[in-house]
Write a structure and sequence with these properties.
4 domains; Putative ABC transport system permease protein; about 850 residues; 6-stranded mixed β-barrel; cell membrane; alpha+beta; 27 helices; 6-stranded mixed barrel
Length: about 850
C-alpha cells in the first residue's frame, strides 16, 4: 500500500476528534510555549539594547581607562574622531552627613561628569530642573543629585548638606532616571552624580585611587564603528584602553540576559521532557484502544509500513497542532505582559512576534514529539492479523526494531545539538541532558521497584483491606504507576534541584558570615595613612584580624606575545581589569602549589605568581610570559609560581602578585580587610572615616545583601521555569488519572459487589495516590539533591548542604498533587452501579 492510502486512513481516524489527546496537546503546547516565551523576551531585550545602544551608553562609542585620565595623545585621537566628547569618572566613596551631631555614612557609587554630559538622553530629577542648575549648588557649596535609596538611607532632604571626602556638597534633587545607568553595570552602592571639577579639593582622586574614566564620543553620522574600533586599538595600543560602542551599549546586561535565557531555555527543555512522558503515555493509551482496528487493517492486507505511516501521520498532525498552539501562546504572553515586564526591566525592550525564538521553540517541539512517540508507534508493527485482543501492545517487546532505536538516537543527538547551539553553552546543555537522562533512569528504576514492593507487601496487608487494594492496584502494570512516578517525579526533580541550588548559593554567600567573612573592606588607603590606620585597629580588642596589601589594577593584554583572548578565550579574568599586588613573600592565606617564589631582594626581570585554578582554566603554565597593562604601562612578567587562592571566604585574594621591583614607582593605594565583632563595626567606621575621609569602607554584609537581592530575582526566574515543568507533570498526572478512570470504575464495581462500602473504596483510592505521590516526591528529592550537589560542586565550586525546608516541601507537594488528582477522578467510579458495569464487561 502507498503513503497516499496511509494518509486517507489517517484522515478517517482523525474524524473521531481529539478525545484522548487533550493531555498530549497540553503537554506539548505548554513546553513549547515556555521556550518560545523565554526566547521572545530575550529578543525583545536584545532588540531594545541594539536600538537604544547609543542612548544606554551615553554616546556612539566609549573609551575606558583604568585608574587614570586620558593623556594628550589619547585626547587628540578622540578629538579627531568625534564631534563632541564627554568625560565621566566612576568610583566608590563614602557619603557622610551630620544628623544631630551623629555622623551618618553610606557607600555610594559616584559618577562625576563634565559640562558636556550627557551627550545623549536626559536625566530626570525630582524636583525637576536642568542638571547644570543642580550642579550650581547653594551658598558657595557645589550641588549634587542622589538616588532616592541613598537619600532615604542618609535621611536627607533637598537642601541638606553632605560630604564626599573633604568636599562638602548640597543635595539639590533626587536622581529618578540616569540615562546611561544601564551601561555602568552592577554597583555596590546607590548613585551620586556630581561635577568632576568640584572634586579637586576632595582628596578622592589622589594617585593610586581606584577609579575609572570613560570618554563618550558623539561620532559623525554614518561612522563605521568596526573600523573606528580597529583604529583606536592600533592608535592607542598598549594604553590599556577598552572600547565599547552603540552596537552593544550595555554589554554586561546583554551577556547576563543571554546566559539567563540560555539557562531558562534548558529548564524549559526539562519541562518538554516531562511533557514528553505524557505524550508517550497518551500515544500508547490511544494505540492500545486501536488494537482491533490495527488487526483489522492487517487482515485486509495492510502491511507494517502502511499501519505505521497511518498512525505516524495522525500523531504528526496532532503534534503540529500542539506546537502551533505553543508558539501562539509563547509569542502572545510576552506581548500581553509587556507593560508589566517593561516596568521591571532596567533596560528598554521592544516586544513583538520574533520568528527566530518561535522557530527555535518549534524545532524543540518537533524533536521532542518525535523522540517520545517513535517507540509507541513502532509497537504497531507487533500487531498481527490474528491478534484481536486488547493487550497486544502491552505484551509487545520493550525495544522496537533496530532502525527505530537508531532513529531515536539520531533524534536525541539532534535535540542536544540544537540546545547546545541555541543556548550557546555546550557544557550546560550536556549537564542538563545528563541530569535529565539520569533522572529518567532513576525514576524508571524507582517505578519498577515500587511495583515490585507493592506486590511483595500485598499479603502482609491482609488485615487492612483498603491498603491491600491500593497495593494490588499499584503492582498492576496496567494501572500506570510508572507514568505517574516518571511524569510527576521529573517535574518535582527539576523544582527540587532549583531549590537546592538557590539555597546553596544563598548559604555560600551569607551562611555563617561572622565566622568566615570580614566586617569591612577598606580601599583607597594611601601609603602614608597605613601606620595610623593599623594603629587604630591593632589596639581594639574587638578586632580579631587585619589583612592589608598594596592594590593596583591591571589588564592582561598578551600571553606569550599573542593577544590574550586568542590564547585563553573568553575567560572571566580577561573580561576587565583585575587586582594586582606585590610582596616579598607569599601571603599567609595562599599556598604555593607549583614553581618558586622570588627571593626577598630580587630585582631582576618582572616575575608574576598566578592563581592556580584560574591558570589551569586559561591554559597557563610555568614559564609563560604575561603582559599586564597597569596605568597605561605594559609590564611583561614571567609566570614563575602558581598558588592556591580561596575566594569563597570573601576575604582578600589576588589573581596576580608580582615582585615589588616590577611595580616600583607605580602610584597605588592599599586595601585592607578587617575582621571584628559586629557590635564594634560602627565605632571602627566612625573613627577611621573621621580621621581618613578619603578612605572608602565597604561593609561586607551590605554587599552581600545586594548580591542576595540579585540572587532572589534569579531564583524567582528559575522557579517560574521549574514551575512549568511541575505544571506539565501535573497535566500528565491528570491524564493518567483520567485514562485509568474506566479501570477504577470496574474495580469499584467489583469491590461493591463483594461488600465494600464507598468509604473504604475512597480510602483505597486515596492511599494509592498518597503512596505514589510519596514515592515520586522521595525519588525527586534524591534526584534534586544529587543535581544540586553536582551543580554546586562542579559548576559553582562551592560546598553543598541539603536545604531541608525545600526538600520536605517537594515531598509534600508530590503527595498533595497526586492525592488531589486521584480524588477528583475517584468520584465517578464511586457513583457507578455494579450491575451495569459488570454486565457491560461480559
Amino acid at each position: 500500500m502507498s503513503l497516499r492510502m496511509a494518509g486517507r486512513l489517517a484522515r478517517r481516524e482523525l474524524r473521531g476528534g481529539l478525545r484522548g489527546f487533550r493531555v498530549f496537546l497540553a503537554c506539548l503546547a505548554l513546553g513549547v510555549a515556555a521556550i518560545a516565551a523565554v526566547g521572545s523576551v530575550r529578543h525583545a531585550i536584545q532588540t531594545g539594547l541594539t536600538q537604544e545602544g547609543a542612548a544606554l551608553l551615553g554616546g556612539d562609542a566609549q573609551l575606558e581607562f583604568t585608574y587614570r585620565f586620558a593623556d594628550e595623545a589619547e585626547r587628540a585621537w578622540m578629538n579627531d574622531a568625534a564631534l563632541a566628547i564627554s568625560e565621566v569618572v566612576d568610583f566608590r566613596s563614602m557619603a557622610v552627613t551630620q544628623q544631630n551631631s551623629d555622623p551618618q555614612r553610606a557607600l555610594t557609587q559616584v559618577k562625576s561628569v563634565d559640562d558636556s554630559y550627557p551627550l545623549l538622553g536626559k536625566p530626570i530629577l525630582e524636583p525637576q530642573m536642568p542638571l547644570r542648575d543642580a550642579f550650581t549648588g547653594q551658598q558657595g557649596a557645589p550641588g549634587a543629585v542622589m538616588a532616592p535609596a541613598l537619600i532615604d538611607r542618609l535621611q536627607l532632604s533637598v537642601g541638606d548638606r553632605f560630604s564626599l571626602g573633604t568636599q562638602e556638597f548640597v543635595l539639590m534633587a533626587a536622581l529618578i532616571h540616569e540615562p546611561d545607568g544601564a551601561a555602568d553595570g552592577f554597583g555596590l552602592g546607590p548613585r551620586t552624580l556630581i561635577r568632576t571639577q568640584d572634586l579637586l579639593n576632595s582628596g578622592l582622586l589622589a594617585p593610586g585611587t581606584l577609579f575609572s574614566t570613560k570618554y563618550r564620543l558623539d561620532l559623525p553620522p554614518g561612522s563605521d564603528l568596526t573600523a573606528l574600533s580597529a583604529q583606536a586599538s592600533e592608535a592607542l595600543k598598549g594604553s590599556g584602553m577598552r572600547w565599547t560602542d552603540a552596537r552593544n551599549g550595555a554589554p554586561g546586561i546583554s551577556e547576563f540576559v543571554a546566559r539567563l535565557s540560555a539557562f531558562l531555555v534548558l529548564v524549559g527543555l526539562s519541562g518538554l521532557a516531562v511533557g514528553g512522558i505524557g505524550v508517550s503515555a497518551a500515544v500508547r493509551a490511544y494505540l492500545a484502544q486501536k488494537t482491533e482496528t490495527i488487526a483489522t487493517l492487517r487482515t485486509l492486507g495492510a502491511d507494517r509500513a502502511t499501519v505505521f505511516q497511518t498512525y505516524l501521520i495522525q500523531i504528526g498532525i496532532l503534534s503540529g497542532i500542539g506546537i502551533f498552539l505553543g508558539i501562539i501562546l509563547g509569542g502572545s504572553v510576552p506581548l500581553l505582559l509587556a507593560p508589566l515586564i517593561e516596568t521591571r526591566l532596567p533596560v528598554p525592550a521592544v516586544f513583538s512576534f520574533y520568528p527566530q525564538p518561535l522557530a527555535e521553540a518549534a524545532l524543540y517541539g518537533v524533536l521532542t514529539a518525535f523522540l517520545f512517540t517513535l517507540w509507541p508507534l513502532a509497537r504497531t508493527e507487533e500487531v498481527r492479523a490474528a491478534t484481536l485482543f486488547r493487550d497486544a501492545l502491552s505484551s509487545a517487546r520493550f525495544l522496537p526494531r533496530a532502525k527505530y532505536v537508531l532513529a531515536t538516537g539520531i533524534g536525541l543527538a539532534a535535540l542536544i545539538s540544537a540546545a547546545a547551539f541555541f543556548s550557546g553553552s555546550a557544557r550546560l546543555t550536556l549537564w542538563t541532558s545528563g541530569g535529565l537522562a539520569g533522572a529518567l533512569v532513576l525514576l524508571s528504576v524507582a517505578a519498577l521497584a515500587i511495583r515490585k514492593l507493592a506486590r511483595f507487601t500485598t499479603k502482609p496487608a491482609r488485615g487492612n483491606p483498603p491498603l491491600r487494594w491500593a497495593l494490588s492496584a499499584i503492582s498492576d502494570p496496567r494501572e500506570g504507576a510508572a507514568s505517574v512516578v516518571l511524569s510527576l517525579g521529573l517535574g518535582l526533580s527539576v523544582l527540587a534541584a532549583v531549590g537546592q541550588i538557590d539555597g546553596t548559593l544563598r548559604n555560600a554567600i551569607s551562611g555563617n558570615l561572622p565566622d568566615v567573612a570580614p566586617s569591612y573592606f577598606f580601599v583607597d588607603i594611601q601609603k602614608e595613612q597605613m601606620p595610623g590606620f593599623t594603629e587604630r585597629l591593632e589596639n581594639d580588642p574587638a578586632v580579631s584580624r587585619i589583612q592589608s596589601a598594596p592594590m593596583l589594577r591591571g589588564i592582561i593584554t598578551q600571553i606569550n606575545g599573542q593577544p590574550a583572548i586568542e590564547v585563553a578565550g573568553d575567560h572571566w579574568v580577561l573580561e576587565g581589569d583585575r587586582g594586582v599586588t606585590y610582596s616579598d613573600a607569599p601571603p599567609s592565606n595562599a599556598r604555593v602549589t607549583a614553581g618558586e617564589w622570588w627571593s626577598e631582594d630580587y630585582s631582576g626581570t618582572p616575575q608574576v605568581s598566578f592563581a592556580a585554578e584560574e591558570a589551569e582554566e586559561m591554559g597557563l603554565k610555568l614559564g609563560d610570559q604575561l603582559t599586564v597593562n597597569i596605568l597605561g604601562r605594559d609590564i611583561t612578567a614571567e609566570l614563575t609560581s602558581l598558588r592556591e587562592v580561596d575566594f569563597s571566604t570573601a576575604g582578600m585574594g589576588f589573581i596576580m602578585s608580582m615582585n615589588p621591583s616590577a611595580l616600583a614607582g607605580a602610584p597605588h593605594s592599599f586595601i585592607a580587610t578587617v575582621y571584628a565583632e559586629e557590635q564594634a563595626e560602627a565605632a571602627i567606621l566612625r573613627d577611621l572615616a573621621g580621621k581618613f575621609p578619603n578612605i572608602t569602607a565597604i561593609r561586607v554584609r551590605d554587599a552581600i545583601d545586594r548580591v542576595s537581592g540579585l540572587l532572589a530575582g534569579l531564583a524567582a526566574a528559575t522557579s517560574y521555569g521549574a514551575g512549568v515543568s511541575l505544571l506539565t507533570g501535573f497535566l500528565v498526572l491528570i491524564g493518567a488519572a483520567a485514562a485509568g478512570e474506566p479501570a477504577r470504575r470496574y474495580e469499584a464495581a467489583v469491590l461493591k459487589t463483594i461488600g465494600a462500602d464507598r468509604r473504604r473504596i475512597l480510602i483505597s483510592f486515596a492511599l494509592r495516590a498518597v503512596l505514589l505521590g510519596s514515592a515520586a516526591g522521595i525519588v525527586a528529592l534524591m534526584v534534586g539533591i544529587l543535581g544540586g550537589w553536582a551543580v554546586a560542586t562542579y559548576i559553582f565550586d562551592t560546598s553543598f548542604d541539603v536545604i531541608w525546608p525545600s526538600a520536605i516541601g517537594i515531598v509534600l507537594a508530590g503527595i498533595i498533587v497526586t492525592l488531589g488528582a486521584g480524588l477528583i477522578f475517584a468520584l465517578k467510579p464511586l457513583a457507578v452501579r455494579p450491575a451495569r458495569i459488570l454486565r457491560a464487561s461480559d
